[in-house]
Amino acid sequence: MAHCETLRTLFNRDLNKLKLEIESYKNEAKIWTIDEQILNSAGNLCLHLIGNLNTYIGATLGNSGYVRHRELEFSLKNIPRAELITKIEEMIVVVDATLSNLPEEELEHEFPIIVFEDKDSIGFILTHLTTHLTYHLGQINYHRRLLDT
Length: 149
What we know:
By secondary structure, this protein is mainly alpha-helical. It contains five helices and no strands. The protein is elongated, with a radius of gyration of 16 Å.
């Protein structure tokens, strides 16, 4: 399997898992719960992932026109579950379409913007974004299992 196809498969798998995690909360209000040791709610982590992927895949690689408001990813509260699900579903389409149209050889090209301290390849940034997604997906899973009681 080509690297672009692998990335597409991983993003699709984990964005669908994100959707399932948000759907799995028994008490919708608990999506926004924080605790002494858990400072980010699942809702805010979900918004952060949506903003992150819309920025680096949708806008930067797919020219979607998305404009990120990162501070809102952590300050907005109590967005209905249905709206979060819709945003995740839209993200699945954006990521899949962008990666479907990305030629394999582009992965070695320089990412159009600097994300870290130096220039990186598109392949490196996309790989980073998959691990960033799974990191926060795991946090959301634990959040749900610990606080959705």
